[in-house]
């Protein structure tokens, strides 16, 4: 069995491998009893390389880390007024969307929404040059009082950040699989704004638990943030929908049960 956790394999296979390398992989895949992808939309990755009946779907699962009391407290806080806390949580690598996140913050700052939002940028910068560029952007656009560069955030600090947030944003332009950070945001009961990459449209259902916007479009992102600020009831209903989606599809228990079911099917075919 092979379990593919990303969404880039087929692109890499087609664009960068030599004919001999493709032949080696093709022959190796003929020997597998099955492959697992993260979402039905990713079955195409193995189309023509593995028979359709040997392609299985198993979504990522994140064990429950929030208690019912923590979710209730977070929901109660989110019903209040004041500035909305918008969080980006991922590595600060090119294409992941952190620059779009910052540009949207600058747009909102320039168009009369300066007092409506606080932006948390959480993630590890790959090098000092990137870290300096982020700080320079914040200073240049006078965002020191609304944008907070948090660096790497792990474990309990990460869970606390998500509970203290109102909206989660991951405007990635990369060839994604099924981002863990979005599942964690669903678990925390947050509306999510992301892009139509990989299996994200299955996780972020347009108009239900968030919005799907084009990559590299900070004005589109800013517009959705304004909409959520202006519609507290929509924001809260989307957060509840995210939590429900997590409980129905992306818990650790669902993952283990799904894995065992697939193994039983494969062993029954061997």
Number of strands: 9
> How do the strands line up in the largest sheet?
6-5-4-7-8-9
Q: What's the order of the H and E elements? A: EHHEEHEHEHEHEHEHEHHH
Mean pLDDT: 96
- Secondary-structure-derived class: alpha/beta
Question: What is the CA-based Rg, rounded?
Answer: 20 Å
How would you portray this structure in words?
The chain is of the alpha/beta class. The protein has eleven helices and nine strands. It has helices at about 10-15, 20-30, 70-80, 100-110, 130-140, 155-165, 180-185, 200-205, 220-230, 230-250, 250-270; strands at about 1-5, 35, 55, 85-90, 115-120, 145-150, 165-170, 190-195, 210. The longest helix is centred in the last third of the chain and has 18 residues, at about 230-250. About 35% of the residues are buried.
Task: Summarize the model shown.
By secondary structure, the protein is of the alpha/beta class. It is built from eleven helices and nine strands. The protein has a six-stranded parallel beta sheet with strand order 6-5-4-7-8-9, sandwiched between helices.
């Amino acid at each position: 069995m092979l379990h593919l956790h990303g969404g880039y394999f087929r692109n890499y296979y087609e664009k960068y491998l030599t004919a001999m390398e493709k032949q080696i992989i093709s022959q190796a895949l003929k020997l597998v009893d099955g492959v697992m992808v993260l979402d039905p939309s990713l079955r195409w990755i193995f189309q023509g390389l593995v028979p359709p009946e040997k392609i299985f779907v198993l979504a990522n699962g994140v064990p429950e880390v929030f208690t019912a009391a923590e979710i209730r407290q977070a929901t109660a806080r989110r019903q209040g007024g004041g500035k909305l806390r918008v969080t980006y949580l991922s590595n600060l690598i090119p294409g992941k969307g952190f620059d779009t996140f910052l540009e949207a913050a600058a747009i909102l700052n320039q168009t009369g929404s300066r007092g409506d939002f606080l932006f948390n940028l959480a993630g590890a910068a790959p090098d000092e040059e990137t870290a300096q560029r982020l700080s320079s952007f914040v200073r240049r656009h006078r965002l020191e009082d609304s944008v907070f560069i948090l660096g790497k955030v792990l474990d309990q600090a990460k869970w606390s950040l998500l509970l203290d947030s109102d909206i989660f944003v991951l405007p990635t332009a990369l060839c994604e699989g099924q981002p863990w950070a979005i599942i964690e945001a669903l678990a925390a009961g947050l509306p999510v704004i992301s892009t139509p990459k990989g299996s994200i449209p299955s996780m972020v259902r347009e108009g239900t638990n968030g919005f799907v916007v084009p990559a590299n479009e900070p004005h589109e992102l800013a517009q959705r943030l304004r909409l959520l600020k202006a519609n507290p009831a929509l924001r809260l209903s989307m957060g509840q929908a995210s939590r429900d989606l997590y409980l129905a599809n992306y818990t650790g228990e669902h993952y283990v049960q799904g894995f065992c079911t697939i193994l039983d099917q494969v062993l029954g075919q061997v």
